[in-house]
Structure prediction request, 997 residues.
Amino acid sequence: MPPLLNRALGCLVILLIPCSAFAQATLTGTVKDTSAAVLPGVTVEASSPVLIEKTRSATTDGSGQFRIVDLRPGSYVVTFSLPGFNTVKREGIELSGAATTRVDADLRVGAVEETVTVTGEAPIVDTQGTTRQTVMDKALIDAAPTSRQYSTLAVLIPGVTASAQDVGGSLGDPMATLTVHGSRGGDMRVTNNGVTTATLMGGGAVGMSAPNAAAAQEVTIDTSAVNADLATGGPRINYIPRDGGNTFAGAMFVTFSDDSLQGNNFTDRLKARGLRTADGLKDNLDFNPAFGGPIQRDKVWFWFTGRYQIANNFVGGMFENKNANNPNAWTFDPDPTKPAVNNGKWYDGQVRLTWQASPRNKIAGTWDQQWVSRSPFYISATRAPEAANDRKSFPQRLLHAEWSSPVSDHLLLEAVALHRTERWGNYPPEDQAYRSGTVPGMIPVTEQSTGLVYRGGGGGIFTGYYNDSSVPSYFYRAAASYITGTHAVKVGFNDQQGRLDHRLFQFTPLAYRFLNGVPNQVTIYATDLVFRTNLDHDLGIFAQDRWTVSRLTTTYGLRYDYFASRVPEQHLGPGHLQPNRSLDFQEQQNLNWKDLSPRIGVSYDLFGNGKTALKATANKYLSGQGLNGLATDANPVYSIVQSASRTWNDANRDYVVDCDLLNPLPNGECVGPLGPANFGALNQAVFDTDLTSGFGNRGYNWEFSGSVQHEVVPRVSVDVGYFRRIYGNFRVTDNVLTAASDYTLFTLTAPSDPRLSDGGGYSVQGVVDVNPDKFGQVRNLNTLSDKYGKQIDHWNGFDFNARARLTGGLQLSGGVSTGKTTTDNCEVIAKVPELLLSAQLLGGANAGAWLPASRCHQESPFLTQVKGVAVYMVPRIGALVSGTFQSVPGPIIAANFNAPTALVAPSLGRPLSGNAPNINVNLVEPGSLYGERLNQLDLRFGKILRFAGRRATASVDVYNALNTDAVLTQSNAFANWQTPQSILTARFIKFSVQIDY
Prediction:
């Protein structure tokens, strides 16, 4: 190798941030002679066409054991040779994911030329690994009826829950977050060869880039006991890139459907519950070609892929507003001839090159360019089209580079880097006249009784604002592995750096709230806000070993994390209501955390025959963190008082707020004081250094598990496991200008309603209202909950899974997962009662209403999922039949009642503070009511055609085959309580073609 290349590779190892992962498959086993004595010094070679280097090898150690790590998915031939003994070949060994596959051999004294060939498949039980991993290889992705997105693949695993329920790709790429066994959505990670591809926003969990299924050899999904390569412990979806090969090959997947191919599940029961129209498919297309091969045989390969998707959907219960963009109209007048539509388009093009630079140095790189246009987006049953936005990304670029070197049979070096450029935003809808300046900004209105937002925009993930954000980032990982027959030691590090340039803007600084069409509140905003936050390091350094002694394998590791962000010098210019604003901020430290996280797992081959494994794990993980959340909140620009509200009496019904909006005292039509009173002020929020820095102060969770995996009969296994997750280091926001004694607790009588427990009329105790002399006085301290008392958040549950690889082309997998959540912050609430306004229901749902103090302890029932996947290649006739099934609990239900001041005054002993017309209170016990269960069956029927060396599968997919009309979301506002807002997409047919050549 040229000296310059040697030096470049050396620099790459040093500079690229390492990350370990046992990310690809491992071969291990023991070699003995016919007397059962172990044989050291046996050469073991693993050969496969998926390896550009063709063969990887190892030598058995003194215990007769060998181990070959980091093998790409595919079919292998394993050869055992030792001078003086016969040679043994094991063919048809299929490797996938990060599983450890045991392949043993017995050698006997024989001639050198004698070779014994054995054909056999890999065992179905992994007796050494403790990570629970599901592998979705190309064959399964092509065969099963899914949208080929990570969320629709992962959601088929029992225990995994997605934030968006997709049917047949009708949502396109929903940017869904995934949870499992009580994890948080921000803790999931989508990676490409172990490098996260998500944005620095969204907690690092999701992003505007959509993985391309045709670019992956397989997709692995880790759901428990994940290794030390990353900090978080939620689901981990890893796309293993597909290289080219020594022969030219390609594939193309095309699928299409539209509203003419859809049925109707708008049933009478939904109409009786108040749903006006059902959600529906408009257009759906996915075109996904791929092609690759050799540029130079055994030296340079390429693989090119593209993807174009369309997902346009009718929004149930929503129509275009006849009064949209009319500054003189203040009512929502739906046009039943114009149903609302959310549109989405995704474009992707990428090319990957793989170069075997020398026998022991492989280099690969990927150039990936993507665009996203969702215009409009975020329309729902409670958000009118003119109040929605256009979510767009300018061309995103993901540049991916990899280097790996099996320096010897024992030493493996690897390094990977990713540079991701991203600019995206939620912008005003293109069809709004005011975007071109012909109409003044329309003031948005929220109808309090129903939650309907109409007339004006700015909303979604940044309440009250549109956004324009640039988020470039760099991610590096590198590791060194030392492998013997009994040990697989891996050390390395990973790091991420980048910045967030963020603009929050609006065309009007006002938002109105009506109750039954009558104005009662006005909110003002400190638009525009422009700020930057830099990520200096999201660094992890780890060491991990997998040690096998006889039947026992112990995996143990330790990870050190260092997260550091800062804010550079910033200037904040004028805003709509603050034309003279001119503020300068000095550079300062933002977050600075240091943590140690142990990872421990044991696996025991119970009978020594590779058919039964006992496993136990204990792993500490850190909460997902990017440049939003706490990193953004602590930015001094963002932490100024951005909004304030006050009671408004529009006596003359001219819809103009006739008062001095910035005067904190009641005046004119502003009959209530401004809250917070210090709108636009600096230093509104104080962040305790114990929350934002220090050792062991970052949010974390411990995951414990114990399981038994057993091969019942050949190619059929079952897995039973128990899981427990415990959270710690909770954030609390305490208004230090008020004490617990400044809040009055009172009792509210629930209205009579047959849908409520015992018909309603019961007492709801512990409703909170701040005393009038403290209304609007706010200075928030953000700190750790331990300073106020004990807070708990636990999840406990069980899984039962089964998997079968039967002869004749039948594959089955599925199971049952059940678990319950327990939370309690009663000690904290007693000292910080204002937290009850932002208290979340079980499952992470925010009711948007006051939670009574009497309900600070929440406990869900056991919530059970049932999932299944079946694929059958019908022999002789060349047909494919496959299906997926999901049965999951419905959403948690709240009942948010707008209690008027006249109703609460007798118990409160006074009117509501701030002259508020009402207080919004959740009437039901959290976890006591859930929506109806969702049962979704998807089917595929295909015919396999072969011609001229090509294979094509023409399929008809039937999604939501049962035509279930399950309600996905419903109103929690008591005025139209449990009125459906969205339902499962009705049964529809998709035509698909998969061509491989």
